[in-house]
């Protein structure tokens, strides 16, 4: 319980204007981008510095209060959903670029700096920050660290973990530690790498060192229409098998295109069944050479039309359409869930066929827009809550995620497990695996105060039986025992 | 594509009976290796040939409260602080099978005792490779060992290290627990990434039994330019010039005498890069090496980075801009002493290697300690990789404790409460 005396302690540490306890204000923080999960916190604090975060977390630790870090609240897995009677630590006021070193190509940032801002500040030096989640204009680098965010260009450039070399973090006991550093080696286990993607359960990153890349000399982008999703899938395979590493390969199906066009008029063809966006970047000489091969491969695999962006504005519009896809679905459906499963790229067609079947069975439409280059699906399950379809939609979304695991993939490629998929974790990992992950969590946070209830399934959340039990392959083979 | 575990008992090995002993390990008598602490006894060597046997080996060691050293190819056994004579040495060379390779998915699954060079041979027919080129590769360095050492070579600039390419891992913890994280796909954020706990752990947190890795297409061509530079500041300037250019080098290294700049790509684009590079201001004197000279140059860089017996090797990481000052400090420290110091640097990433030769152990110890202080003052960190005999008596193996020490100790308690795995490796930290 947070009584008036404790609230005054928070106010003394952070300033009265940095502590919110008015119920109306608290309600603003009740959910993140996945609006189905809601919980009003007891208190919200808005620190401005590492020291203030440490002060707030120390008070939480002393009082045994659970706390949840929050960036822009754009997450799609319920990772920033508050805990009842707990504290939300909003990093919204920590928006400073602390250092920019164009020669060593690195920046040190407070966690509230937006992803797009990093590249904007780096641009005058011909540099940029590679990971580019669709929400990059709003989402923060602190949130990106928590989720190990990716984006459309992961297939060539990797994820947040490949671009963050160092972190200053406030640990769940309120102490401050530096993980990693300016260079990509440091003694001992890679705590930096463990922390990135831990979804706020190991502490709060308060200063983040990122490496910047030189802006590529050339970028070439095309949209190729295909008569079937399978043909588009074959084109993807052909491109990836050709020895070319494209910067991005995205696919949209007709329903996703319909939504995008209704929202931003990006020039996608409404007549096609599937559209591929392929982007190459790099040294002009090489890029042009490889781009010709990509165009040829699209023709070889039966494209009906190839549109090549001839200006930066045209390329920007193609990406605007692609990145607006989630929100655009609002134009064609009152409500939607977005899933984030991954399948091996060679099983994309199979996955899409099964999603279509599942969609027919539940009687709900599913739009597909995804990162085809790395097999990361983003099925959008469309439904109408007013018509009582929410429960069916939720079931369909969970079934799709679990099908991805069945096909040898993952529950999540970039949105995180959060609250949303914690109960599905036993589909992907054995009990022992999860117990070992819990050990790791305990090492950082023995009292489980940092973002409890996320990532790992709990009996309270998932029922006494933690999800459906599936034996670990080793267990089935008699190699290991279940404890 | 997945091969099954072959039946059979755990194999024992020693120098005299390598890999073919049929006796169950529990009854094995000690064989080769360093004497166990205090007792003068040799450690028992076990060589599991699969995941189940590896789990048995660690479970047995745990129940008998024996200390354990995990050994791959043995190319990095000296890294960090010396390990107190272990009761059991677990060799990973029997964990060397290919489990799966899906060329179209850009993934491969292997047992982690497989040498990197062997994996490259298996991937090459599909036009693929694991894009790492660590100096220890020619010594047979294994994939699990490379992960545990956090080691990588010059092309880390483009691809990162082995840890950056791991998409899934199966570990055997010091208590024998088998745990898995990640998966088989190249994009995946589900759950904690346990492989990161192994990355840089130098064997103190468990055994890496299997790895799923992301592979890359083999570049059609590579080309290397060499530029004479015996001065650190000049070398750094050259590196920055090429990094500012649109040519996208995949490696930029300085061996103390020359800067090596590597490009790759299609045959045509690699040639174009080599042609354009000398036009960059400051790089006019850079000359392209022919294929043979290119191979030789990188081989020599690996050798010079590894060092030799009797030499002391310290690896440091700072921001690249610190190099000239650190080079100057090294010169001051060795001036008027019989110690000769060689400084090499991954110029684009701030990874520096100092190799000391000449002089005696006390002089090596004094030089490494003072230079390491300078590294830490510059906000960096350092790992001792090799030492002349006697250096340990006069110098700490590790520098100042990291600020995350409490977490490291807590992790060690969670994963190896008895402190049995690689005991002493991170002393005095934990």
Automatic annotation (TrEMBL), chain A:
<dbReference type="Pfam" id="PF02913">
    <property type="entry name" value="FAD-oxidase_C"/>
</dbReference>
<keyword id="KW-0274">FAD</keyword>
<dbReference type="InterPro" id="IPR004113">
    <property type="entry name" value="FAD-bd_oxidored_4_C"/>
</dbReference>
<dbReference type="InterPro" id="IPR016166">
    <property type="entry name" value="FAD-bd_PCMH"/>
</dbReference>
<keyword id="KW-0560">Oxidoreductase</keyword>
<dbReference type="GO" id="GO:0016491">
    <property type="term" value="F:oxidoreductase activity"/>
</dbReference>
<dbReference type="InterPro" id="IPR006094">
    <property type="entry name" value="Oxid_FAD_bind_N"/>
</dbReference>
<dbReference type="InterPro" id="IPR016164">
    <property type="entry name" value="FAD-linked_Oxase-like_C"/>
</dbReference>
<protein>
    <submittedName>
        <fullName>Glycolate oxidase subunit GlcD</fullName>
    </submittedName>
</protein>
<keyword id="KW-0285">Flavoprotein</keyword>
<dbReference type="InterPro" id="IPR016169">
    <property type="entry name" value="FAD-bd_PCMH_sub2"/>
</dbReference>
<dbReference type="Pfam" id="PF01565">
    <property type="entry name" value="FAD_binding_4"/>
</dbReference>
<dbReference type="GO" id="GO:0071949">
    <property type="term" value="F:FAD binding"/>
</dbReference>
<dbReference type="InterPro" id="IPR051914">
    <property type="entry name" value="FAD-linked_OxidoTrans_Type4"/>
</dbReference>
<dbReference type="InterPro" id="IPR036318">
    <property type="entry name" value="FAD-bd_PCMH-like_sf"/>
</dbReference>
<dbReference type="InterPro" id="IPR016171">
    <property type="entry name" value="Vanillyl_alc_oxidase_C-sub2"/>
</dbReference>
<feature type="domain" description="FAD-binding PCMH-type">
    <location>
        <begin position="37"/>
        <end position="215"/>
    </location>
</feature>
